[in-house]
Amino acid sequence: MASTSVAARAATEKNIYVPEVSDLVRVEKMSALETLFEVRLPGGRDLGHQPGQFVQVSLMGIGEAPISICSSPLAKGTFEMVVRDVGNLSSALHRLKAGDRIGIRGPFGKGFDVEGLQGKDVIFVAAGLGLPPLRSLINTLLHPGRRGDFGRVVVLYGVKHPSEFIFRDERKSWETRKDLEYHVTVDRAAPDWNGHLGVITTLIPELKLDVPNTVAAICGPPVMYKFAILALRSKGLRDEQIYVSLERKMKCGVGKCGHCQINNVYVCQEGPVFNYGRIKDLKEAIQ
Ligand SMILES: Cc1cc2nc3c(=O)[nH]c(=O)nc-3n(C[C@H](O)[C@H](O)[C@H](O)COP(=O)(O)OP(=O)(O)OC[C@H]3O[C@@H](n4cnc5c(N)ncnc54)[C@H](O)[C@@H]3O)c2cc1C
Ligand code: FES
């Protein structure tokens, strides 16, 4: 009897170590180094993720890497991710085209508590490749069926040079939306750049905030977190009102191998999205 129930359970439960062979339905170059991949799971099943979660992407014979999901869970049938060409797996992914297949495990980790943001003003501080993971939440809050549930949505987006901007078409529509406050900056201007110049934290002092009702979400290169947190604190935000999405070297993605561990915290399980108030004393969490 017992062995039957184990067998039955094995047949119905998803094995978290086995990638699902999934289709690339769109491959779109976003910048010199970054490409968007739209992925369809077998049968068009929804991934069922929370904004901020990640998947483990694999290619047979090459390897596996954690990649953030950049589309909203409210977009049905497929999901999206943006990959930077930096190493073995990501370079191999960049050689693929629509119609090719990749392996997907997940979604893994802990993302943003979307319902906990109801009624709140949300500020996004996205630098460089920090935009894709935050875009999943931005597009959830901006979704026509949900927009009325949240307060102000403020997106701050910075890159080193204008050539590094991604999601150009989508961001054009952000510029004209009345229900979104959207500000961009670059560290170094190009000759035709007329916008704000300076690192992303220089956008924060100008913001007028309803401090008690505001939550901030930060994602970007490790060096930026400390300064973004300081700038938000100087506007009056408490550490508990700040969320950070962290990256660590990962292997299993499911709390078994210890690769992502900071002291007793497994980033792949308890993160990558953390409340800053919860991890501020965790050595090495923020540079
Ligand atoms: C939660 C999470 C979400 C992520 N989301 C995204 C995303 O949305 N998009 C994206 O592009 N990336 C994302 N990443 C990063 C991505 O997983 C890594 O860049 C990954 O290493 C790429 O795999 P690769 O095989 O292409 O690169 P690798 O061949 O692993 O090389 C990647 C870089 O790391 C260096 N490196 C590799 N191994 C080591 C080592 N042992 N010690 C020191 N340096 C090393 C390499 O020199 C290279 O610069 C995410 C990571 C995490 C943890
Ligand atoms: S990646 Fe293996 S424990 Fe987190």
Summarize the structure.
With 287 residues, the protein is of the alpha/beta class.
Could you describe the 3D structure shown?
The chain has 287 residues and is an alpha/beta fold. The chain has 2 domains: 89 residues, Elongation Factor Tu (Ef-tu), domain 3 (Beta Barrel); 131 residues, Rossmann fold (3-Layer(aba) Sandwich), CATH 3.40.50.80. The protein is built from 7 helices and 15 strands. The mean pLDDT is 93. The structure holds flavin-adenine dinucleotide and FE2/S2 (inorganic) cluster.
Shape estimate: globular
Order of neighbouring strands in the sheet with most strands: 10-9-8-7-11-12-15
Q: How many domains make up the 3D coordinates?
A: 2
Query: What's the CATH architecture of the largest domain?
Result: 3-Layer(aba) Sandwich
The CATH class of the largest domain:
Alpha Beta
Q: What is the assigned CATH homologous superfamily of the largest domain?
A: Nucleotide-binding domain of ferredoxin-NADP reductase (FNR) module
CATH topology of the largest domain: Rossmann fold
Structural class: alpha/beta
Helix content: 10-25%
Q: Describe the biggest sheet?
A: 7 strands, mixed
Helix-strand sequence: HEEEEEHEEHEHEEEHEEEHEH
Q: Indicate the mean pLDDT.
A: 93
Supply the number of helical segments. 7
The portion of residues forming beta strands comes to 25-35%
Number of strands: 15
Low-pLDDT runs of 5+ residues are: none
Ligands, deduplicated: flavin-adenine dinucleotide, FE2/S2 (inorganic) cluster
Distance between the termini: 54 Å
Radius of gyration: 19 Å
